[in-house]
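Propose amino acids for all 293 sites.
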């Protein structure tokens, strides 16, 4: 399988006299993180434009998940590389912490027993499982879900002509939103498995939990209002049951309109209902559920 969206290694060797290993990779222009936060204007002002970003992020994962779990999917690990002709390709980088998979089953799990160097604000629920930390490629899919929230929220700020969040503000906001989907709060560092579930979030009929997590809830609601189709996708990617999360191929099929998310069928948001009615008139509404395996 040709891998057009994974960073290429050009050469490798050992330096003298110190014997240090070096790897020479193809040179990138800048990272997705740089492009997002060094913005001069709104880049993705609709679901249609968001689909272009999602496509660029999902293609590398589709290629990589045939061989491994990345374990640290975040905007800094996507690099824009200039190819012949001057066009830019988004490529996945930094495979140091990756875990190999042995089959094509996207739900195949590998057990990681040791602490990993990762970006905790993008870390999925499996990592916090005290019973075993069984990780599959769906771990990366959760990380992508958090990335989409990050992109959408930044674009909403850009539309209001607000400056990008500082690094600390960004991490804090993503932590809070991630906690909301996880159902528990994490400690400040969030890097040690099994010992940092500080407080369970109790979703009750009262308003206390809403007041405690008001900022995160408002962010999610703003994303639903601005990007409903993307928000629907995020709801799937941040499913606590990893087997229900789409594969990278499922994500690509969803944004291309080739399938629907099985859990939600046709009736989740009015915008999709209207589109489904149009498709029914055209006789093309019988879409299969998007791929989760």
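Proposal:
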């Amino acid at each position: 399988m040709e891998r057009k969206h994974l960073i290429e290694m050009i050469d490798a060797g050992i330096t003298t006299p110190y014997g240090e290993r070096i790897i020479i990779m193809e040179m990138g222009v800048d990272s997705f993180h740089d492009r997002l936060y060094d913005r001069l204007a709104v880049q993705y002002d609709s679901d249609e434009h968001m689909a272009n970003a999602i496509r660029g992020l999902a293609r590398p994962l589709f290629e990589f998940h045939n061989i491994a779990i990345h374990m640290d999917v975040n905007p800094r690990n996507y690099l824009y590389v200039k190819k012949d002709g001057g066009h830019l390709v988004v490529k996945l980088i930094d495979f140091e912490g990756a875990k190999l998979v042995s089959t094509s089953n996207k739900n195949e799990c590998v057990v990681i027993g040791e602490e990993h160097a990762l970006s905790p604000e993008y870390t999925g629920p499996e990592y916090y499982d005290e019973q075993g930390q069984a990780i599959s490629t769906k771990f990366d899919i959760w990380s992508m879900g958090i990335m989409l929230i990050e992109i959408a929220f930044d674009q909403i700020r850009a539309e209001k002509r607000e400056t990008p969040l500082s690094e600390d503000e960004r991490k804090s906001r993503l932590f809070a939103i991630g906690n909301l989907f996880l159902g528990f709060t994490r400690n400040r560092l969030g890097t040690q498995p099994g010992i940092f579930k500080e407080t369970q979030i109790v979703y009750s009929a009262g308003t206390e939990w809403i007041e405690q997590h008001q900022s995160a809830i408002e962010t999610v609601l703003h994303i639903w209002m601005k990007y409903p189709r993307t928000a629907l996708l995020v709801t799937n990617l941040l499913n606590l049951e990893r087997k229900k999360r789409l594969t990278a191929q499922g994500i690509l099929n969803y944004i291309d309109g080739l399938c629907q998310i099985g859990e939600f069928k046709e009736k989740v948001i009015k915008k999709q209902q209207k589109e489904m009615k149009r498709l029914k008139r055209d006789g093309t509404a019988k879409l299969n559920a998007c791929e989760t395996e």
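The mean pLDDT is 83. The first strand starts at residue 9 and ends at 14.
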